[in-house]
Amino acid sequence: MSTSEPEASRSPDEHATPDSLLHSAPGSGVAPEDVVLASGRDVTPATLEWARKKMEREGPNCIERLLP
Fold first, then answer.
1. What are phi and psi of 56, to 5 degrees?
2. Which of 4, 7, 13, 24 has its CA at 20 to 30 Å from residue 44's CA atom?
3. Buried b (16+ CB within 10 A) or exposed e, 14-44
4. Are 63 and 26 within 8 A, CB to CB?
5. pLDDT at position 9, please?
6. In whole angstroms, how far apart are CA 36 and each of 14, 17, 19, 30, 61?
7. Are 54 and 27 a contacting pair, CB within 8 Å?
8. Model confidence over 19-67: pLDDT tens digits?
């Protein structure tokens, strides 16, 4: 079984998680700290300011673009 064939590694009883269950439900309490951490950066005054500006420009849904 090759790892390049992910479907072949699943048992017949396994199903992929629906996309709708993989999202963070932004708009329900997303904080600048969440945006910083989702971007993989350390929480510092500078990155918090960056996150605040990003949220002002793009809204709380901006976290969705940062998460895998």
1. -65, -40
2. 24
3. eeeeeeeeeeeebeeebebebbbbbbeeeee
4. yes
5. 62
6. 34, 26, 23, 11, 13
7. no
8. 666 655 555 688 999 999 999 999 999 999 999 999 999 988 899 888 8
> 27 to each of 24, 32, 34, 58, how far by Cα in Å?
9, 12, 12, 12
Give per-residue pLDDT as tens, 7-22. 566 666 677 777 666 6
Task: Tell me phi and psi for residue 22, to 5 degrees.
Answer: -100, 5
Q: What is the pLDDT of residue 16?
A: 76
Is 48 buried (19+), middle (13-18) or exposed (0-12) by CB count in 10 A?
middle
Distance CA 38, CA 67 (A): 6
User: What is the rounded CA–CA span in Å between residue 42 and residue 54?
Assistant: 16
